[in-house]
From TrEMBL:
Location of the protein in the cell: Secreted
Family matches, as PROSITE patterns: VWFA (PS50234)
SUPFAM superfamilies according to UniProt: vWA-like
Protein name per Swiss-Prot or TrEMBL: VWFA domain-containing protein
Species per Swiss-Prot/TrEMBL record: Brachionus calyciflorus
InterPro entries: HMCN1-like_VWA, Thr-specific_kinase-like, VWF_A, vWFA_dom_sf
Record's keyword terms, sorted: Secreted, Signal
């Protein structure tokens, strides 16, 4: 079979079509059935005869309906205070990842996706007195490598009351987040606020803010508004009250979860797993709908 241009060339006849007319007839004529409203059709963007399938999954469309139908993976970042008081929360993060994998597989199987579409990153931060160990991180990877990173991660350091939260968030921002995925989550787990008098009114060696001149407001807004990342702050105690107030001024989309209960570890696990599974359930329902 020949496309339009090759057809006229084969018969050595001058092509009657030029410019946009020629490019249009050489496009696939399969269109998104869900966009067929008000005489508008969103046609496949591939070339004619790229496939003979009538399954929408084998075609590509630049339309809102198609965006809803296609699963593009899920990115999860755990940004964790890794100073001396946080050892049990680092250990718990391994359990949470294992549970996420187990629960996610149920939903992914239903939409014919494998667990490799789930990527996990861990960013550990401490404080500025901790030398070259202020931050440690593993880029987005599979669950096993993320768990191995956590297994080898040591909770230590931390000088004054606040910690290098800004540095942890900055590293998180610079991770290789998927641009085309709508399911991107950052879980900030901490028991101490950032440096700066707006976040804490005692025991701060850097009351003017991060000594690296990182701006938390800018970082959070880039994470949320530019990259489309959903930020959840797992608040371990009331020393974070001032921080919560300021963060909510920066961006109203930030979600704070109060985990100061008799079993904060369980609360964290339930929250994280619930958020991730809800996103997968919503995607599952949407894809099955179409």
């Amino acid at each position: 079979m020949l496309n339009c241009k090759d057809y006229w060339s084969f018969y050595k006849i001058k092509n009657p079509l030029v410019g946009s007319d020629l490019s249009n007839v050489d496009k696939c004529n399969f269109y998104c059935m869900d966009c067929e409203t008000n005489e508008f059709k969103s046609f496949c963007t591939d070339q004619v005869m790229h496939t003979f399938s009538n399954d929408w999954r084998h075609h590509n469309f630049n339309c809102e309906c198609n965006e809803k139908k296609v699963y593009k993976g899920i990115d999860i970042c755990f940004t964790i205070d890794s100073t001396g008081s946080m050892s049990k929360y680092i250990e718990k993060s391994r359990d949470i990842i294992n549970k996420i994998v187990k629960e996610s597989k149920i939903h992914l199987d239903k939409i014919n996706e494998n667990i490799n579409s789930l990527r996990i990153s861990v960013v550990a931060y401490r404080d500025h007195c901790d030398g070259n160990k202020i931050t440690e991180q593993i880029e987005f990877t599979d669950a096993k490598k993320a768990i191995d990173f956590l297994t080898n991660l040591e909770a230590f350091g931390g000088g004054d009351a606040p910690e290098a939260v800004a540095d942890g968030l900055d590293i998180s921002l610079k991770l290789n987040w998927r641009q085309d995925s709508n399911d991107k989550f950052l879980f900030l787990v901490l028991d101490s606020p950032p440096h700066g008098r707006q976040y804490i009114n005692r025991g701060d060696d850097y009351p003017d803010g991060c000594p690296c001149n990182l701006n938390i407001k800018t970082i959070l807004n880039e994470l949320i508004d530019k990259k489309g990342i959903k930020v959840y702050v797992l608040k371990l105690n009331s020393s974070l009250n001032l921080m919560e107030k300021e963060f909510k001024k920066y961006n109203s989309k930030i979600v704070f979860i109060d985990t100061e209960t008799s079993n904060s570890l369980l609360k964290i696990e339930e929250t994280v797993v619930s958020v991730v599974c809800k996103a997968l359930e919503d995607k599952e329902i949407t894809i099955q709908k179409y």
